[in-house]
Amino acid sequence: MRFSSARFQLQRYAGARTRFTCPKCHTSKTFTRWIDTVTNELLPEQFGSCDRADKCGYFNSPYISGLNELSYYQETQQVEKQPISNLRPLKSAKPKRALPPLCFIPEEVVEQTKRRYSSNVFAQLLLNHFGAGVATDLLCRFDVGTSAHWPGATIFWQRDKLGRARGGQVVLFDAQGHTVKEDAPNGRTKRCTDWVHTAYAAHCRKHNLSQPSWLISYLDPNNEVQKSPSLYGLAQVSNISADSPVAIVESTKTAIICTPYLPAFTWLAVGGLTYLNADRLRSVREHPITLYPDASTDGSAYRRWSEKAAELNQAGFRIQVADVLERQANNAQKVAGFDLADLLLEQWPGYPPSWDQ
């Protein structure tokens, strides 16, 4: 298929700055990305072609759709299409409601956060736990950034099935990987978690800065589009076959930490106990799925996800629920609401001296 007159085209070579790191083989300066000829902006980083055709062969086109899914181009056209208004409608015809604009965060904003890992508490936890090589791979694979909202805070960027950054969760951890809590004005304690758009808005107010256009659109109260509708880590799914198993947990931290321990799974996070539903799992419908609910004193989390799994299986999913935390977590851990990552971190024997050799 020729794309010479198409809206999306592979970016023409104009020096090393127009070639990127391949998302599959991770070789630098070998990846050609697609560009939007209307806006002159690069498409999300998973769309492109690796120059190492024999050794890698990665190719992902915005014109190719996945199973039962729209292609990037089709979705772009669907969002941009406006109702025709130059003809007088019949009295009985109801006006079509214009599609609300999508909320997504510019790629340059995301990339600016992928640094200062030496001051990122969670990044340092990964480094100390797994070593530099594995930690670097995890930070890249899961789109982890650094935030100044709290000193040492982490950003977990959340992308949709087309690779666009739809939101970012800001979390401050302690050295053991637990979310830090702080005193609230009402005398209670609250978890140090926030969203990038609210943190960015607070930064602008504090420093008397004007808000960028993307943030104004993102904060528009009339914009009803869900801002983080996808599973965390979803970009990994485009690189695996339909029969490859995926594992789903609640928190972003857990998906990342479990990846090196149980690499047979592609690890994803749903974002919360109540977010497990057919709409959020649609992009992994073809895969065998294993759920790992958090521990709870009365087993309510396990029961809730087991009931939801039975409901989703009736709708064509293939889901099983693991009871590892129900069996292995002690009473104190259940009271604390341990997840699988907490259990793994607590059982860690320490930094192996062989890593320094």
Question: How is this structure best described in words?
Answer:
By secondary structure, the chain is an alpha+beta fold. It has three domains: 1-75, no CATH class; 107-219, no CATH class; 234-349, 3-Layer(aba) Sandwich (Dna Topoisomerase Vi A Subunit, Chain: A, domain 2), CATH 3.40.1360. The protein contains twelve helices and 14 strands. It has helices at residues 72-80, 107-112, 121-130, 132-141, 196-206, 213-219, 252-261, 278-281, 300-314, 324-328, 331-335, 340-346; strands at 8-10, 31-36, 48-50, 59-60, 144-147, 153-159, 165-171, 181-183, 189-191, 193-195, 246-249, 266-269, 288-291, 318-321. The strands form four sheets. A four-stranded antiparallel β-sheet has the order 1-2-3-4, with no helix packed on it. It has a four-stranded antiparallel β-sheet with strand order 5-6-7-10. A four-stranded parallel β-sheet has the order 12-11-13-14. Strand 8 and strand 9 (189-191) form a beta hairpin. The longest helix has 15 residues, at 300-314.
Looking at this protein, list some descriptive labels.
357 residues; alpha+beta; Dna Topoisomerase Vi A Subunit, Chain: A, domain 2; four-stranded antiparallel β-sheet
What's the end-to-end separation, in Å?
A: 51 Å
The total number of structural domains is 3
Count of discrete alpha- or pi-helical segments spanning 4 or more residues: 12
CATH topology of the largest domain: Dna Topoisomerase Vi A Subunit, Chain: A, domain 2
Order of helices and strands: EEEEHHHHEEEEEEHHEHEHEHEHHH
SS-based class? alpha+beta
Task: Tell me which CATH architecture of the largest domain applies here.
Answer: 3-Layer(aba) Sandwich
Protein name: DUF6371 domain-containing protein
Domain Zinc beta-ribbon finger putative: 7-63
Domain DUF6371: 120-294
InterPro entries: DUF6371, Zinc_ribbon_put
